[in-house]
Amino acid sequence: MSASANARLGEQIWQKMPKINAEFFTLTYGAMVVQLMRDLEDVQLVNEKLEKMGHSIGCRLIDEFLAKSGINNCNEFAETADVIAKVAFKMFLGVSVEVASWNDEKTSCSLLVYDNPLTDFVELPPNINLYYSNVLCGVIRGALEMVQLRVECYFVRDTLRGDDVNEIRLELKEHIKDEMAEEYRRE
Amino acid sequence: MIYNMYIFNRRGTCVYYRRWHGRENDEEKQRLVFGMLYSMNELVGKLSGSISKDGMLTIKTNSFTMHQFHTASGTRFVLNTDNNAGDLRQNMYHIYAMIWVECVVKSPMWSPMSATPVDSPLFDRQLETYLEGLTCFR
Known about the structure:
Chain A: It comes from Chrysophaeum taylorii. Chain A: Homodimer. Chain A: It holds the Pfam family TRAPP. The complex is a heterodimer. Chain A is of the alpha+beta class. Chain A contains five helices and four strands, in the order H-H-H-H-E-E-H-E-E. A four-stranded antiparallel beta sheet of chain A has the order 1-2-4-3, covered by helices on one side. Chain B is an alpha+beta fold. Helices cover 36% and strands 20% of the residues of chain B. Chain B has helices spanning 27-47, 89-105, 121-132, and strands at residues 2-8, 14-19, 58-60, 65-70, 76-81. Chain B is globular. Classes of the chains: A alpha+beta, B alpha+beta. The interface between A and B is medium-sized, with 21 and 25 residues.
């Protein structure tokens, strides 16, 4: 499917998705991050926790995504990245994302999030190593794991730290092989 | 007529089984069903010249038809019917998108990799209502 077709599909599904109040969403997420900072007391642990929470979300979200988008299989990773950027981000967050900076092997790219709804009204204290929206990386990793793609996903640039755009790096590590349950193994 | 339905996770564990008509199936048969589908899919993938996105859809014998719907996330829905049921692709997609995702995937009691059978009265009810409404049910 071509890039613009994905953008149209994303727009169509977004129209049909149930919506919640954006401020409510942003404030709830903010309250959660603050609570994690209090509970864990270590910024690195908070970054990891957010990623882990995202991973659990992604493992479930993939089915809702597949069901509502009607997308089944992507032929190559470039298509997968485009579907995430144009359909998934649009349908769940209402924003459109650019795919950029492919490497030569086409296994790694950047997702440029110009408008991140999680960070409205947010200011970080200076010199803090918090990846505030790290949950997004986890969601992407969890969702792709369910379709047999092992990826690494991390923030490179963050507007909260003074960068001009949010950049999430997405790297394909391997295609996961099917593994059967115990009862199918031969002794 | 719809005989029974299986739902398998990616690892081949049967997480849901329901029978409406026909004979009762034991666990051994569930394993055989999955094993056959798995091998058939591999084979179909290798034999078919073009890349098909849907994979294998039905297996027909002289006494019954097995319909398969396989999601990219690895869940397999299998519906066994008599030979007059016709094309059930749309219906199986409906069961996945409108019933499975809404009643099971969104439930906090369910976990994607879990091997425990799905125990959801809501899913049972909605599935039953939907299937009973189909002309091919009886």
